[in-house]
Amino acid sequence: VRPHASAFVARQAVSAPIFMDTEKLKQIQESCDDRMGKSINSLSQSLNSIRTGRANPSMLDRIIVDYYGAPTPLNQLASISTPTAQQLVVEPYDKSAVKDVEKALIEADLGMSPNNDGQVLRLNVPPLTEERRKEFAKQARAYGEEAKVAVRNIRRDSIDAIKKLEKAKDSPIGEDESAGAQDLVDKSAKKYTKECDDAVAKKEKDIMKV
Length: 210
Description:
Elements: H1 2-48, E1 64-67, E2 70-73, H2 74-77, E3 78-84, E4 87-92, H3 98-107, E5 115-116, E6 121-124, H4 130-167, H5 175-208
Antiparallel strand pairs: 1-2, 3-4, 4-6, 5-6
């Protein structure tokens, strides 16, 4: 019985590091996908904050209010509605914060002056000039480029991590496994880069639409 027990222990000793390294490879790939996905989500939020000539609550997504000394997103402090295609209505849940919200809207330099009646704030969205549309389209492309740079950086970090794992002492990850994992990272990078381009193209089309 003893030899069989020794063989079992030996197999366990060998399989443990193989399992651990395989799991680590999987973690690198999952982390890569997760981080690239977050870059796309961040891009979407940035693009939503750009005006398109029509009122949209997401135009105020990046507004931060100094609420009792704490920087707080506007959409956590107030309801934002669009009663018409050219007007935003901001209604703070805490009426004592109306002045703070008004200050944040003014400092955000939105190109719209809030009308404060003490209860709600109204923002009239002016039509965009051709020059302004081009400026916003350029801003959208800049956001897209930032997201693509983030994706490229994540790709580089992931590839480096896979190569490091392959070269580790006694690593069971061979050249084939490493190449396969790197190929998956490349495919993810291409996929998310295309999503960046598609999102920016759609936003540009919305901005330039009269």
